[in-house]
Amino acid sequence: VQLQASGGGLVQAGDSLRLSCAASGGSVGTHATAWFRQAPGKEREFVAAISWMGGRTYYQDSAKGRFTVSRDNAKNTVYLQMNMLRPEDTAVYYCVAARNTGTLLSSRGRLTPRSYDYWGQGTLVTVSS
Description:
The structure is a single chain. The chain starts with a strand and ends with a strand. About 35% of the residues are buried. About 5% of the residues lie in helices and about 45% in strands. It is globular and about 40 Å long. The protein is mainly β. It is built from one helix and eleven strands. Strands 2, 4, 5, 6, 9, 10 and 11 form a seven-stranded mixed β-sheet that branches. Strands 1-3-8-7 form a four-stranded antiparallel β-sheet, with no helix packed on it.
């Protein structure tokens, strides 16, 4: 499965962006999917995740109330709607997928990058103050 993230760009604080992650070469319809990000000089960190049927979502504390993760399995695509963006949201955002749907059931599982089998190439989000 190949993941292609898009939708990043340069925005001002308070603006919104919608990231998309299109899968090819296979279906992510039965995969747990998530978004990670990596800011310059920092470690990769978990942002949000969604179960394979979309019934459960998980967010990093700073994303709660501002970001919404969703998926459209018919389109083989996962989304991350980001509102009220802050300069500290500046990072490369990666979409990821795990064959083991149980990955999301534990915080350790979903927060650990190596829990995920597939990684997209990342899309850069820059938020200016």
